[in-house]
Amino acid sequence: MANPFEGMDDDQKEYQKVVSENVNKRMENAMGDLKKKYANGQKEDNSEGGPTGDAYKKHQDGMKKKASDMKKAMDKGREQEAIFIKQERENLKDANDDNDNDSSDDEYDDLLNDVDNDPEMEALRSARMMAMRHQAGERAENIAKGHGTYRHISQDEFLAEVTASKWCAFHFYHKEFERCKILHHHLDLIAPHHVECKFGQIDAEKCPFFIQKLQIQMLPCLIVFKDGVVVDRLTGFDALAIDPAEPDKWHTSRLQAWIASCGAIKFTMPNEEVRKEMKKMGIVQRGTIWSENRAHESESDNED
To answer: Which residue among 103, 191, 192, 260 sits deepest, i.e. has the most Cβ atoms within 10 Å of its Cβ?
Structure first.
């Protein structure tokens, strides 16, 4: 290889040597910078390591992925925070509702305590309990006297039966009279529902003494007694008939209303408004009509 400094004097050689070392040093520095830039993906333009090179693309893709992962992490954090806040709000609402309920329960308990401790309420309660005990005792006593059934009574039993109870309703009948059978039918239905009054039947042929004393001239005849004294009497069915042209056809409730008008039983005929309301609620009272020697059920809505 030829010597690059051949034919030069010493000064020229020294100068050229310094220049050559300087150039080599710069070249080495430049190569070092390129290596560093290449390693960092920051290569020169218009080269393989420039902004359009593979290393640069990998570096940019890596940075984009990091940014994407960071955004996803932040979004997930915000989502979890929103869920947490929502849950805390629901817990707070439930706690407030529980407090309100507890407060309402406490107020209700306080109100009950006030009622329990109220002397007037205690007096009313005691009076009501006494009335209920009296009613129960009176009912049991009446049943023991024969109330609650429609019984046959003989002439010898009549005085004892009529004076033993406060209220009595006795039917004087003849066994061959068709209308007496009609009254039998209705009284047999009424008696079990009104134990406050004693119901009985007496054969008119077998008690001529009382027929005369009570001045009974027509059968059937239903007489109501209070403490052994005649209060009222029902002779025939003119007062009960739905249609005057058919006096034998009437509902049991009509006889109940007539006996109640004497004071012997407690019964109120439902008016039209009450019947409509009962019908809406599915409650239908039924009465009966005796026709051609047999009883037929008929809705009380048809009663007049």
So the answer is: 191
What is the C-alpha radius of gyration for the chain, rounded to an integer number of angstroms? 57
pTM of the shown model: 0.55
Distance, C-alpha 258 to centroid of its chain? 40
Residue 218 in contact with residue 236, Cβ under 8 Å? yes
Residue from 222, 227, 225 nearest 166 by CA: 227
SS3 letters for 208-247?
HHHHHHCCCCCCCEEEEEECCEEEEEEECCCCCCCECCEC
What is the edge-to-edge ordering of all strands in the sheet holding 167-173?
150-152, 198-203, 167-173, 221-226, 229-235
Q: For residue range 200-243, what is the model confidence (pLDDT) as tens digits?
A: 999 999 999 999 999 999 999 999 999 999 999 999 898 898 88
149-302 has CATH 3.40.30.10 classification: yes
* β-strand pairing of 167-173 with 150-152: unpaired
CA distances 115 to 108, 128, 130, Å, are 11, 15, 19
pLDDT one-digit tens code per residue, 146-199: 999 999 999 999 999 999 999 999 999 999 999 999 999 999 999 999 999 999
Mention every residue, 6+ apart, whose C-beta is less than 8 A from residue 197. Answer: 147, 165, 167, 168, 169, 259, 264, 265
CA-based end-to-end distance of the chain: 147
